[in-house]
Each structure stands twice: as C-alpha cells, then as structure tokens.
C-alpha cells in the first residue's frame, strides 16, 4: 500500500479540480436549489438564482476563450476557488455579487443594452374595454361604434344558430 497509496493521493491531488469541480459547481448547487424551491425564503432563492446566472456566465466565458485559457494552467484552480466562494453558504458569494454588482446595475443602468421603441403614453391609461371603446368612438364616431356592436351581435347570434347563410353583409338564419 505504501507506494501505490502515495500514488493514488498524488493523482487525486493533481486532479482535484476535475474531481471536486463538478461536485462543488453542479451537484451541491442542484441540491441546494431544490431545497430553496421548497422554502418560503427569498434569500436562498436569490442566492441560487444568482449562482446559476453567474455559473452560466463563467461557462460562456470558458467556451468563448477556451483556446486562450489553455495557456493558463492555473485557470481550473482559480475557477474552483471562485466557484467555492460563490457556492459555500459561509461566504454567500453569489448574493454578494448580486447585491454589489448586478442589482446596482439593474436598478440604475449606465448603458442601454436593449433598445425597445415605445409608443408615447402607452402606460398612462389602463387598456381595458371601456377605454378602448372610448378611443374607437373618438376616432370613428358613435355611429361607427354602433355598427361595430350590431355586427358583433349578428355574428354572435349566427354562431349560436344551427343553420345560416352568409350573403356579403347579411346573415340569414333558418
């Protein structure tokens, strides 16, 4: 056991990132996320949602810069340490990143990432049936609104009828 036992420990020590990485970055967060779903606490939901967002960003970074990261032999260990900081409840790193970086940026964005053109005064009035009817009458007049209502009424009656004929503008029920 002497030489082979030391050899096993040497292999484990040299590949700690390969062994511990998936456990720390995937297995434990998966278990903790499921536990967080089952609780009523917002703090653990925030911790684990933030962790998964950060983990996705790290993974995208790794996939994008894989060839460059091959030149840095310390990268797997740095990633393991950063993941431990994000995951372990003692540090609560994911919550720290959310509170100090993501939330301030989200609450007060310095850079507009998405440009979405908005109609003027889209949120000024509630968009319900009464305001829509008032707007239609302002634009088209009350006679047009009455014609619209009567046509909708005829169509509703025609759908309830078993037999009907349609002749351009008129419905004939039998």
TrEMBL record:
It is found in: Membrane. Its main location: membrane. It comes from the Eukaryota. GO terms for cellular component: membrane. Pfam families: TB2_DP1_HVA22. Keywords: Membrane, Transmembrane, Transmembrane helix. The keyword Membrane applies. It is a multi-pass membrane protein. InterPro entries: TB2_DP1_HVA22. The keyword Repressor does not apply. The chain crosses the membrane at residues 18-37, 49-68, 74-98. Belongs to the DP1 family. This is HVA22-like protein. It comes from Ilex paraguariensis.
């Amino acid at each position: 056991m002497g030489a082979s036992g030391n050899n096993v420990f040497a292999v484990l020590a040299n590949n700690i990132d390969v062994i511990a990485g998936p456990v720390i970055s995937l297995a434990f967060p998966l278990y903790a996320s499921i536990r967080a779903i089952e609780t009523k606490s917002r703090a653990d939901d925030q911790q684990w949602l933030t962790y998964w967002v950060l983990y996705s960003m790290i993974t995208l970074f790794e996939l994008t810069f894989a060839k460059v990261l091959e030149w840095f032999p310390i990268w797997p260990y740095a990633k393991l340490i950063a993941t431990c900081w994000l995951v372990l409840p003692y540090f609560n790193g994911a919550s720290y990143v959310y509170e100090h970086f993501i939330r301030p940026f989200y609450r007060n964005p310095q850079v507009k990432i998405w440009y979405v053109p908005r109609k003027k005064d889209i949120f000024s009035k509630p968009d319900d049936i009464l305001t829509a009817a008032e707007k239609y009458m302002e634009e088209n007049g009350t006679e047009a609104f009455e014609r619209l209502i009567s046509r909708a009424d005829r169509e509703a009656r025609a759908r309830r009828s078993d037999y009907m004929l349609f002749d351009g503008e008129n419905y004939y029920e039998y």
